[in-house]
Specification:
The chain has 367 residues and is of the alpha+beta class. It has twelve helices and 18 strands. The strands form four sheets. Strands 1, 8, 9, 10, 11, 12 and 13 form a seven-stranded antiparallel sheet that branches. It has a five-stranded mixed sheet with strand order 14-16-15-17-18, with helices on both faces. Strand 15, helix 8 and strand 16 form a beta-alpha-beta unit. The two termini are 40 Å apart. The site of guanosine-5'-diphosphate has 17 residues, from strand 3 and strand 11.
Length: 367
């Protein structure tokens, strides 16, 4: 489970990691009100679960509260890597002197937590790893031994942070690791950790919790409400949207398209047990993408029921603004009922993935 930046910052604050003072706004009026109570200039940060918001235009600076209103309006219309912006975090703009990178991830191949740290903060860390790997310090923690503050300071020294900051940066690394461990995280990242005149603060926060640990992380599990129906969604550069229930099935659908010469426009896994509403949401999401010429919906009913899928499809087709051809493969749980609903609504379907993929490619090529 991924936390939004504002949730991760709340968690950090609670656990003694300094963060800038901030407030969450759900709409432009609220943003204006909050802005009036903060020192200017301000930063408006789109709350989405994907990274790279800065580059995608999801972070704006405002000099007064009416500008905050205007910018909030713009941000709330934005979609970042397919994810709509539903709320905005407002913060007083920090006078950044330097930016660091620190993170802890669960390294599955080493079966140990891995701490990564760099003085090249604020940038795309993958780029640092690729272009200047010597600037990215990696340190595996032995899960059977206690991670001690002096070890965190050693990492800070290896990073090359200026002497007067070693103990402070070390302190952040140690605390970040402690929080990572306490909450069964799989990722805890501060990028950037910034130096401002008042000291060091976490300007950004990323936190992912192991879903299998949520049973004992009640405090975090209670935050999950908002994202229960989250999709695994990736935009690609082709023209056929691929939707499936389950990552493996969705990938197979993409493979099958490729086999017949088609190009996927999306990978969209609606997960197991998707509701009618969720199917509709997934379809609307891909249909609203102008690049999509054909939709290939690939459903093998297990927990997901074919009749729910069929109802979702029929509802979307009734209301859809764009007329995008839809090729459906529908089998599995309640398939008889599902197929009957489609037939009644004059929607054709296939039962084999191969036939459906081939048909989707033919339609895309004929357009
Ligand atoms: P990300 O793009 O999703 O990683 O969002 P971040 O919160 O990391 O912000 C991206 C970049 O915006 C940071 O690396 C900073 O350079 C800049 N930024 C964010 N907040 C502030 C701020 O309060 N003051 C200043 N000066 N820059 C900021
Ligand atoms: Mn960041």
């Amino acid at each position: 489970m991924k936390l939004f930046e504002y949730q991760a910052k709340d968690l950090f604050k609670k656990n003694g990691i300094p963060v800038p003072s901030s407030k969450l706004a759900q709409n432009a009026e609220e943003a204006e009100k909050i802005a009036a109570g903060l020192n200017i200039p301000l930063v408006l940060k789109s709350q989405v679960l994907v990274g790279g918001r800065g580059k995608a235009g999801g972070i704006k600076f405002a000099d007064n509260s009416s500008q905050a209103n205007e910018l909030a309006k713009q941000l709330l219309k934005l979609e970042i890597k397919g994810e709509p912006v539903n709320s905005i975090l407002l913060e007083e703009k920090l006078a950044i002197k330097s930016e660091f990178y620190i993170s802890v991830v669960m390294d599955r191949s080493a079966k140990k937590p891995l701490i990564m740290a760099s003085t090249q903060g604020g940038m795309d860390i993958e780029q640092v790893a690729r272009e200047t790997p010597e600037k990215l310090i990696k340190y595996h923690v032995d899960p059977l031994e206690e991670f001690l503050p002096y070890q965190a300071r050693e990492i800070a020294i290896k990073m090359g942070v200026p002497n007067p900051l070693i103990s402070k940066v070390g302190g952040f690394i140690w605390k970040l690791f402690t929080v990572f461990q306490k909450y069964d995280a799989t990722i805890a990242e501060i990028n950037p950790l910034v130096l401002i005149p008042e000291g060091l603060v976490a300007a950004d926060a990323k936190f992912e919790v192991d879903d299998d640990a949520l049973y004992r992380q009640k405090e975090l599990a209670s935050l999950a409400g908002d994202e229960k129906d989250e999709f695994a969604y990736v935009k690609l550069d082709g023209d056929i949207a691929v939707i499936g229930n389950g990552a493996g099935l969705t990938l197979s659908g993409m493979d099958m398209l490729k086999l017949y010469g088609g190009k996927p426009a999306t990978f969209l896994d609606i997960g197991g047990g998707a509701s009618q509403q969720n199917i509709a949401r997934a379809l609307n999401l891909v249909i609203s993408n102008p690049q999509v010429k054909v939709v290939f919906l690939n459903v093998l009913g297990g927990i997901t029921r074919a009749d729910d899928v069929a109802n979702g499809v029929v509802n979307v087709l009734k209301e859809s603004e764009r007329d995008v051809p839809l090729v459906i493969r529908l089998t599995g749980t309640n398939e008889g009922e599902g197929q009957r609903i489609l037939t009644d609504a004059d929607v054709s379907f296939e039962t084999s993935m191969e036939a459906a993929a081939q048909k989707a490619v033919e339609i895309a090529e004929s357009l």
